[in-house]
Amino acid sequence: MIFTETRGNDGTRDASVSFAAALLSPIASFGGIYSPAELNPIPDDFLTRHINSDYQAMSLALLRHLAIDIPLPVLQQALALYRRFDDDSDPAPVVKIDHNLFVSELYHGPTRAFKDMALQPFGLILSELAQRQNQQFLILTATSGDTGPAALETFRNRANIRVACLYPDGGTSDVQRLQMVTETADNLKVIGIHGNFDDAQSALKSLLASPTFKQRLQDLDISLSAANSVNFGRIIFQMLYQFHSYLSLVRQREIELGDEVVLHIPSGNFGNALGAYYARRLGLPVARIVIASNANNVLTEWIDSGRYDLSKRDLVATTSPAMDILKSSNVERVLFDLFGAARTRELMQGLDANGWYQLSAEEHDRIKAVFAADYCTDEESMAFIKQAFEQGYLLDPHTATCFKTCRSAAFAQQVNIIYSTAEWTKFAAVVDTAINGDRGHTDEAALASIAASAKIDVPAGIAALFEKPVMHPAVVEKQAIEDEILKFLES
Ligand SMILES: *Cc1c(COP(=O)(O)O)cnc(C)c1O
């Protein structure tokens, strides 16, 4: 598989690179990113042959079909990490909710959000590549709550990698914060900052631009890499579970091979949706990919009107914070795949300069042929959580947005699969309020309250977080971050 730059080549770097190169160094010319130059559809008999394959075997076959330059034993080790998920034979079980509605649960990994699906294998591969090249890497990440824990967990004690993770103090749930600040491995550093997620992100950007910081990294012989979803090393593990859920429904005799399904995806940075897009491009029978948003519904507008417009919007804080995003980085890869590098560069430069771009009518038609979209308010999302609970199913506020999209009349006759991105335990205060009314509970009390209402136990791994010692107490002002990270690198 060859990767090329979404905005064309500026002459200062390679116009096309291998998968491993794109993974180690994800940023391309003109502010673009690396994307597959082409995608070979799966052979006609691929699905038939893998009807009875488990997740790892099917995934390995798909990755080998994609021909990425990662040694086979490393891929096998990476995929074996899925055996540590709740059910060692199925990391992403599909649950039936209604006669034509299914939930593919992507949160059964160590940190209880879908980020583990990609970051678990990604962490092993990055560390293996770093060791083979005898290079030391620093992963810098700013998190709104799910990426941080998953990145820390995957890189803990991995050779040649250190991670510094910034989170907004007070901007995450208690469970998310505790997952980070109780990490014990020496190669991990967690820093709270005074401010919101945007402040954490902008602190990270100024750090990356700081000449003294770059010089120190050079002196220490440490390279930077990124673990966010512009890194294709993550995306590639987000185009496997759609095949798995499809084959699961065939095995459960809910569909027949060849039937089309509709995929519903709670979306923020568009990494999960992009994986679905590539799965469809590879030949999975997908009628439509439905993008679910919260009140930050720029993607709904884009798909409905062809206009991507940030100019009249401010970010709104919602009960689904992992989807509180206006500039969804991975949309660029869809533009590139459909319209090519020259047009992508033109559109993205328009967005950067003016805050908006408008697709032509013909381009918009091509988007609508693949995607549909809707958004769900916090009030609606709470009502869906309560309703699902009364029918015996617990869901989190991100997943709840898809309970709106799948009720659209357009999909009433279709088989609908919702991709569930987080366990209820990560957003207990919201879920408890939806089910039991707002009683001003802390997360710990909310977890107990939900467990009592549902007559289940709080999962042991979550309950244990509240007993662990805090290893990373630091909460600092933005200006102090550089010092904190340098102290960590020099220790
Ligand atoms: C990251 C995340 C999302 C958004 O996924 P994207 O790939 O950024 O679109 C949705 N829900 C949860 C719970 C997440 O952690």
What structural keywords apply?
491 residues; alpha/beta; Rossmann fold; 6-stranded mixed sheet; 21 helices; 16 strands; 43% helix; globular; binds pyridoxal-5'-phosphate
Care to describe what's here?
Helices cover 43% and strands 15% of the residues. The model has no long low-confidence stretch (mean pLDDT 95). The protein has 21 helices and 16 strands. The structure holds pyridoxal-5'-phosphate (PLP). Pyridoxal-5'-phosphate binds next to helix 12.
As a percent range, the share of strand residues is 15-25%
**How many beta-strand elements?**
16
CATH topology of the domain at 90-113 and 235-466: the name is: Rossmann fold
Q: How would you state the average pLDDT, rounded?
A: 95
User: How does the major sheet shape up?
Assistant: 6 strands, mixed
Unique bound compounds: pyridoxal-5'-phosphate
Low-confidence stretches: none
| Helix count from the secondary structure assignment | 21
Share of helix, binned: 40-55%
CA gyration radius, whole angstroms: 22 Å
How do the helices and strands line up, and which of them pair or pack?
Elements: E1 3-5, E2 16-17, H1 19-24, E3 34-36, H2 46-49, H3 55-66, H4 72-80, E4 94-98, E5 101-105, H5 115-132, E6 136-142, H6 147-155, E7 161-168, H7 174-181, E8 188-193, H8 197-209, H9 211-219, E9 222-225, H10 232-235, H11 241-251, E10 261-266, H12 271-281, E11 286-293, H13 298-305, E12 307-309, H14 331-354, E13 356-358, H15 361-368, E14 371-375, H16 378-390, H17 397-405, E15 415-420, H18 428-436, H19 443-454, H20 460-465, E16 475-476, H21 481-490
Parallel strand pairs: 5-15, 6-7, 6-9, 7-8, 8-16, 10-11, 10-15, 11-14
Antiparallel strand pairs: 1-2, 1-3, 4-5, 12-13
Helix pairs in contact: 4-5, 5-6, 16-17, 16-18, 18-19
Bound molecules: pyridoxal-5'-phosphate.
